[in-house]
């Protein structure tokens, strides 16, 4: 088995992997998970905003 045979085998394997990833990405069952993952960067902002609003009231109660 020489290098050209390995290259000839690697091409269809890579193509099959590409097709598999393509269908996995666009399957309907994954939409909810991908939508949640897309909104993860914004989740921290909501938590920080609620903490900023809560901090002054906590400080007033402790004094």
From TrEMBL:
The protein's name in its UniProt record: Cbb3-type cytochrome oxidase component FixQ
Biological source species: Marinomonas gallaica
Domain of life: Bacteria
Transmembrane region(s): 6-26
Keywords assigned: Membrane, Transmembrane, Transmembrane helix
């Amino acid at each position: 088995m020489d290098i050209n045979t390995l290259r000839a085998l690697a091409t269809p394997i890579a193509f099959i992997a590409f097709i598999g990833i393509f269908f996995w990405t666009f399957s309907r069952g994954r939409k909810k998970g991908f939508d949640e993952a897309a909104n993860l960067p914004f989740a921290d902002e909501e938590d920080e905003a609620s903490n900023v609003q809560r901090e002054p009231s906590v400080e007033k109660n402790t004094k």
